[in-house]
Amino acid sequence: MDVVFDHLGQILAGLGVTLALAGTSFAGALVIGALLGVLRLLPFGVLRATSTAIITIVRNMPLLLVVVIAVFALPQLGLTLPLDVCVAVSLMVYFACYIAEILRSGVQTVGMGQIEAARALGLSDARAAITIVAPQAARSMVQPLGTMFIATLLSTAIGSIVGVLELSGVTRLLNVQYAEPIAIFGTTALIYIALSLTIGGATGWLERKVRVTR
Amino acid sequence: MTEVQLFEMRGPKAARTRRIVNIAGLVVILAAIAALLAGLAAAGQLDPALWAPLLDWGAQQFLLVALGNTLIAGATAIALSIPLGAMLAAARLSRSRVLARLSAGLVEVLRALPLLFVVYFFLLALPGLGLRMPPFWQLVGAIVLYSSGVFAELFRAGILALPRGQMEAGLSLGLSRTQVLLRIVFPQVVRALLPALISQSVRVLKETTLGYVVSYPELLRRGQTLGEFLSGSFLQVYFEIAVIFIVLNGGLTWLAVVLNRRMGRTRTPRAAQSARERVPA
């Protein structure tokens, strides 16, 4: 266990990188995902097809392939970014496509009857989308978005492959140096489990709080 | 359920708006694609000299073997984690409190760790503890551990979604709980969950790229080797690998959609459908 206590600073720094990567990636993924999702809901064929194509392509690619391509291709396009930024960008794009799907199924749960009722009351389509559909859809999206945040957090581990020293990277490094697998891997595992359970618990609480009982 | 249409857009005025937005959108998208291609061309990445080696049969054969390895690793992982997941789900729903708690805890832990972290554990920690295994099992073992947790949750949701009457009818016919589970519950659950099981299989196939880390010669690992060998055709090889994955997984996803639609016509428990939608990335 001494290894863990002696290098607590290093482990906590790794945790910091993991949290920062997860936070920025998920925030970016929310923005891009909302954009892709909205484009897919708008009644313009070209925009809808483009969004669908991007989502289909990215969702069927392995995350590691996206990361490797980003790390290799972005500098070729004249964008020389630090490695952690490359990883963050990849995570953003990758999870944005899943978030766009969550948005879509969130809207689907509202049901056509609500929209028809809104139209019958004389609301414009845009108004109905904002005041009737969006609040209901948002509530049903809490749980899947929480799951997606956990997935993003866990996926930041991919960064260690291209040399970002986040939690898994630090674990690997310490284990190579000190070869005390049980203590080192055990500690990191506990941190990951604590993070997942916290986020899971928080979203569960939020979901119960905002749930619509139908 | 019919697709929700948020916007109606009827009438001549709406048709004109739609046409204008579509044309403007097309221009923007084509401009973006052109800019991307121009950037790649400026970097010399569109040079035919970088793409031509890919047409070589030897290079294709090299990737074909890699594709085979990817498929073998994926299929093995799926074949092992489905029964394991089913067992974990059955244990979690068993009447024995201890067994249920144990299984629940295990599933939570398995799902709360990054797959790559588990791969590192197999690659770096287990040999230190005296357990050495070939790269194939370092990769597949890690995926199986992780994936059986996901399958367990799927099966549990599917079992809970099945009407209680099925279980009760089986029991009242004098079957044991195990018999009911195996012969009445599971066949129906598997049928209802087929699309979700396929989606999870797509995920497993994508995860085999972590073979890159344990030096298992799957598509990404071999792709990198090939890129090095062809002295710098990395982007081109990665492009081909991306196309392979998109076609492969796109086909599987399409199969899931078709099955889903076909089952939509027959009786599918509503909760099983929502369970299906809950499968995370």
Number of strands of chain A: 0
In the predicted model, the low-confidence regions of chain B spanning at least 5 consecutive residues are 276-281
Which structural class matches the secondary elements of chain B? mainly alpha
Shape of chain B: flat
Q: What oligomeric state best describes the polypeptide chains here? A: heterodimer
In angstroms, what separates the terminal alpha carbons of chain A? Answer: 52 Å
Number of strands of chain B: 0
Work out the helix count of chain B. 12
Q: Please give the radius of gyration of chain A in angstroms.
A: 21 Å
Mean pLDDT of chain B: 86
How much of the polypeptide of chain B forms β-strand, as a percent range? Answer: under 5%
Mean pLDDT across every amino acid position of chain A? 90
Class of secondary structure makeup of chain A? mainly alpha
Q: Indicate the radius of gyration of chain B in whole angstroms.
A: 24 Å
Share of helical residues of chain B: over 70%
Helix content of chain A: over 70%
- Overall shape of chain A: it is flat
